[in-house]
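Replying to the earlier thread about multi-chain prediction with a worked example.

Input:
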Amino acid sequence: MQKGGFNFDLYQRNVELIEKNNYKVPKTTKTGTTIVGVVFSDGVVLGADTRATSGPIVADPNCEKIHRISDYIWCAGAGTAADTENTTGMISLQLELLSLSTGRSPRVRTALTLLKNFLFRYHGYISAALVLGGVDFTGPHLHMIHPHGSTSTLPYISMGSGSLAAMAVLETGYNSKMGEEDAKSLVHQAILSGILNDLGSGGNVDLCVIKHKSMEFFRNIDTTNSKRKFRKKLPYMFKSGSTKILEKEIKEKMEKMEIVNEKENEIEELEEL
Amino acid sequence: MDLSGLETEQKTLPIISYSSDFLENGLPNFKTQTLPKHPVEKMQINKQKNEREKQYNMLGKVFGSQYPLMLRLEEEIYNQPLRLPCLPSSYLSLEVFRGTDIEVEPEDLYNDPNNSLLIQPPVHQQMEQYLGMNDLK
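Result:
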């Protein structure tokens, strides 16, 4: 019986292409993102840029990279956009079912285990690098999840192609006794650093502050990098005579001609007979 | 973390089958059945079966060999189709027993066979194929 899920029909064709036809395997594309998470005294701050690239082209200059897993558990995703969105959507579904069947509010650690097991099953073929942060009844938690299924628990995390730029800022500015405002500004600076110094990141800055039973989402908190300073006023108005005329040809309008089909007339004559 | 799906080394020869209905399924092509499969596909095929076997082994060692026997019997009972042949059964009790009723897999969300673009052969033909009755002898 036919089953749903992923389709592996083309695998054998790909193997043959690579072995016999010397097909060049496309390189794994780097994740064009900067995502950051920081733990402060009362909770967690997540930050992300908003550029989605498709090769060298900006596919979406203002996309949302911070996904909801539960009310107070949010996840920023780098990698293939479809993979991050669908993975976080599926785990959010599973977590909701689990919390309903157990009767308890969901924990960040549960979401971490679900994501980790899911990604490990697919051996890294689902390229979703995630920064999972949230506050549950045990306190604030922040984790990073790699596409192959390995995880780390750290006080500050950066992932994506802009992770080096963001990590530089985090290492300089982080201290374990930060308050909410300090943490927000640190994450903001880290994302800005990623946007300015990495080609794959750009657009606006999104922030998400999660505390005990409270969540604030600052969508497009900083739009200075996406406003284009020099923009021509549309529509384009050209003065008549601005393009030079090289040749002129005037065609007369043709009269309508009726083409009579001789064979039709013959058939009509035969029918009459 | 379960590594059961990683045991993918073939310990037996591959079982090659073909249907005699050439018009429906094409001429026999044994090559595609012996070629290597995608590592994730191999994992998916082996995972659930291996996991259940391992769990039964563990339970047998902890609680005695009668307990997994009882569980296997229960699973067999739930695995019976309760509808007439050719009609799909829901196997809800089996899903509850295995704990998969509260689990959501990509198999449930993506590539729903009901929405597939290929036209499925009629039910009687599927049943004949299942019972191996479509030999041209």
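The radius of gyration of chain B is 19 Å.

Feel free to reuse this layout for your own posts.
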